Every structure is written in C-alpha cells, then in structure tokens.
Here is the input.
Amino acid sequence: MTRTDSMPAVLERARDLVGPSLRRAIERLSPELRPLATYHLGWSDADGRPCGGDGGKGVRPALSVLSAEAVGAAPVFGVPGGVAIELVHNFSLIHDDVIDEDAERRHRPTIWSLFGIGRAVIAGDALVALAQQVLLDPGVLALGEARLADPPTAVAAARSIADATAAMIAGQALDMAFEAVPVVDVEGCLAMEAGKTGALLSCAASIGALLAGAPFGAIEALSSFGMELGLAFQAVDDVLGIWGDPASTGKPAFSDLHQHKKTLPIAAALAGGGPRAEELAALVATPELSSAEVARAAELVEACGGREVAESEARRRLGAALGALERAELRPGPCEELCEVAAFVVERQH
Amino acid sequence: MTRTDSMPAVLERARDLVGPSLRRAIERLSPELRPLATYHLGWSDADGRPCGGDGGKGVRPALSVLSAEAVGAAPVFGVPGGVAIELVHNFSLIHDDVIDEDAERRHRPTIWSLFGIGRAVIAGDALVALAQQVLLDPGVLALGEARLADPPTAVAAARSIADATAAMIAGQALDMAFEAVPVVDVEGCLAMEAGKTGALLSCAASIGALLAGAPFGAIEALSSFGMELGLAFQAVDDVLGIWGDPASTGKPAFSDLHQHKKTLPIAAALAGGGPRAEELAALVATPELSSAEVARAAELVEACGGREVAESEARRRLGAALGALERAELRPGPCEELCEVAAFVVERQH
Here is the structure.
C-alpha cells in the first residue's frame, strides 16, 4: 500500500523491527513452500522474482511492539509475538480466500487462483505451524540469548497464540454458517466478529507485554484494548465490505452482499423490521443476486439504519479501546502511539 | 475397521486410555466445527447422528502411551501427546483429501466431498490449533494436577509437535511437487516420506517419554524407532497405493499411478533404466491414463523391481526400528508391545 500522511510512524518503525525476523522465519520454509509464502506476502511475483511489496499495513506487528514498550520493555520483546501473529494472520487470509473463493487480494491474484487450491491449503498450514515454532524454538529468529523467553513465559505466549488462533477459526466457521441462514441477530454477529477479528488483535496488543513479563493487570488492559479495537476494525471492514470503493479495497462493489455474508450492517438492518427490512430479507435470501439487486440491497441496508449502526459501533468500540488503556499504568508515549494506530484503523478507507 | 486376530492388544488399550481425552478435546470445538470433526473421526454420520465408528487404527496414540511406559512412567503420561498427535494426524488427512481430491476415506465420503472444500479447510485448521491447546493448556484435558507438565517439559512437547507438524507439511508439499515432474530419485522420495510420514510417527513414539521427563538417550532412541517405523509404514503404504485391494484400502485400484504420485516403487522402477523403465516413464508422463494403461504401468513397476525395492525397504526399516529400541535402557514389556505395533504396521493390508 502507499504510505499516506495519516499513517502512524510506528507502523514503519515496527516493520523495520519485525520485518527482518519475519523474513528469517519465512526462510525456514522448504523450497516448495517458501515461494508461495513470499508471493502471498507481496515479496515476490508469481515466478518467484523478488518485488517491492510489503504485504499489508502491519498493524499487528506494530501492536505487538507497542505492547512491549507500553510496559516499559525494549521493543525487541514484541518481535517474536509480532512475527508469530503476522504468520497466523496470513495463514487465515490464505485459507479465507480459498473458503470465500476470493480471486483477488491487495489487487493481486490470490494464491489459490494462481497456484491451485491444494497449494493454498498447504501454504496456510505451513504458516500456522511456523508461528508456533517461532515462539517455542528460539533458534528460528536467533534474536540472541537476551531474547529467550523463560519456559513459563514461552508456554503463556504460545498458549495465547494457540487460543487466539482457535477463536479466530471458530469465528470464521460461524461466519460461514451465517451465509447459509436467512437472518442473524446483532449479538450473534458481534460474537462472530469477536472471534474472527478480535481474538488475534487482542493477542497482538498484549503479547509483547506478556513476553516482557508484565504484571497481569497490564496484560489484561492491553488485551481488552486489542479486542475492542478488533471489533472497531471489523465494523469498519463491514462498512467497506458493502460501500468501500473497489479501487481502494481491491474487492468488487457490494462484495459482502454478493457473498451472502451476514455482517453487522446487514444484521442490524434486518433486525429493525418493517417493509424495507422485509424487502431486504427477501433479497438476502435470493441465491444469486443481479448487480441491480445488490445495489438495491445496499440502499436498503443504509435506509434501515444498518450503516449508521456499524459506524457508531466502530466509534463506540474505539472509545472502549482507548478507555481500556487507562485501566493500567502504561507508559504515556507508547500509549499515545497505540491510540494513533487505533484511530488509523477506524479511519482507514481500505 | 474390523478387528483381526493379528491386531496388537495395545491398540485397544491405548484407545480406551486416550479416547475419552480425545473426545473431551473435540468437545471444545464450537458447534459449527464439532460435527465436521466427529464426522471425519467416524463418530457421527453426515447428519450429526452418533454412529459406532472409531476413526482409524489408533497406531499413534498407542505409540505415545507405550513411549511413556517404555521409560517406566504411568501410561497416562502418554495421553496429552497421544491426543495432540491424533489431532494433527487427522488435520493432515482432512487437508490431504482436499489436496489430492480424494472423495473417499475409510469407505466414507471425505469431508470436502460431503460438506465442501471450505468446511474441510476450516475443520483441519481447527484440529491443528486444538492440538497445541491440548499441550499448552492443562484445562483442555483436565487430567488432574498430577498430569500437568512443568513449563520446560510443556515447551519441549509443544515444540516437538510443532516441528513434526512443520516437517509433515513440508513433506506433503514435496509430494505435491513430485506429481508435476517426470522422474524423482529414490533419495528424494525417501526424504519426502521421512517428512510426510516419519516425522509425526517419530514424535508419537517419543512424546510420552518426553512428557514423562525421560533422559535424552531414551527419547532419542524412541524417536529413531518412530522415524524408521514411519519409513516402513510409508513403504507399505506405497505398495498398497498401487497393488492394494480396493475392498480393503477403500481407494481405487492403482490409485497412486492414477494420481501421478512418485512413490518409492515408482521412483525405484524408473531409476533402473532399460526399455521397460522407458515405457513406464512414458506412461507416467501421460496426463490422463486409461484403466488399461494404469494396469500396464503397475505391471512395469513390478517388472522393473519397484515393488521388491519397496517391500525390502519396509523390512529393512522395520529392522532398523527394532534396532533403535536396543540403543537405550527401556522396559522390556512395553518394548515388546512397540515391536508388536511395528510388525502390525508392516504386515497390514490396508
């Protein structure tokens, strides 16, 4: 992505810090798996030639580094967690693209559409196994003696990632189940999003502190910050999934409506009742929608207040995230940067 | 599968011991994921109704339990490892069926062919994440205070599984790459099989000892036993993949030749050279083979000595596995049972 003036400086700083370790971890993959991973990450093209991409905004590594700094630890304490979470995040993107049959991501063909479903499945599998190795085997990142977590801390960190991964997978399975039912209530929708998006951001925002041996209260506050931020992130994503500009998002217009996703704006619009909600329900239940029908469905979601619900949910969750940071004694500088990242996530257009 | 007289008693004993914990772990899956897992394991039918299946022979849990007993520990030390490895093994089966487009396993439709590719992908993902939780979070199995691994042991066990999982995935990726090339040498083929099959059996055969805090020498001997057994297992699998009786294996006749797998008998047959090897090479390079061509290819593999190479490799690796057990001081009773399991694996017909 292009750097904009609104992008917090910490994203670049965290990328410089975490990036080399992420590359070192990817180097451990076998020659059959590595090109798939580097293609997905935007580091190489379809023929394996290096190219200048950097794969995503790097919000998760930034949170991981800041969570170490927020408890007064050196930023390097956030590196193993940042690498592991970035690997789990990319595992989920690769498999989600297979599941959703999305042919493009970040304006490039997805792994499955270029190399086949089998290779996308195995590439995702490789990243999730590597994520655990990063936390359990200090030899993978070779950050030096000083950065070896003691065994109880390594267990806690690996468990935090395993739990977040399991919650994310359960959220994705719920999202898939929602596609097949006519109506989903707002509560169910938020539970799905807490798993699908909140769990990993919650882990990202606390694992640096955890690896630095911070007290429970600080880890809990940072973890809550991440969960609330995840729900804000997802509410924004849901708005972009319907009304996002295809030129920015890289997805087709009204993408989520085409795919029969039951995201927050849709669930909220259907919950309101009345003739417009009924018209929307009928469209949502139609297996294949024409472009005109999808545009009409988007209009109805907005008219039924679904867009406003999601936008206010994003603001409310952002507020709750910032509030969580006040529940523990954290360093003011890193805290300010956490707030900048949070604001960036909620204001983004893609 | 039907119990035969040749089946070692330890398989049933290990199933009784590990089974309840495996069920408890599966219970943790969300309502969307659980029915997929229980269907795959043979515990429920396509509509979620319980049925009497027990999912496979249970070789891995038996090895895990025996590896604890072999170092003089109570069999329960082998339970968390046995559960975790059974989960990883089933994750790999579910994803391999997607990758290989196999529509049947154990005489039942595979998950992807019944519920779709997306659900097979997410079900596999859920099992691999759960495997790590089993080792890192004592609450999952709730085996009681006495069975909590201390943190250094938990790290070693979780790392052992993560490393074995990563090696297995790399082996599978290599297997996929082999399908696209005309010839594979025997050495490359064995390296692929060491990853694809050996790594997880090596982990299974040593993790009980590892969790029981056994000395390095014992863990190493058991780990070698498992690796050699894995290579023997795979050599037998390769023979069954061509000449296995479809009624027993649940796979079509000459299955591996249809799928352009480059297994040991095929690699060995091609390596010999001569006119028959050339005829075989031409057939192997043909994209779609008729039934007559596949039968001819199988005949040529046998005529070129490929079957004999695989069968003698299985015997040789079985011998090496038994030899590895003599390198450490292990309890004679459990050792004898390890040998029984090894013999069973090599003599099996499916």
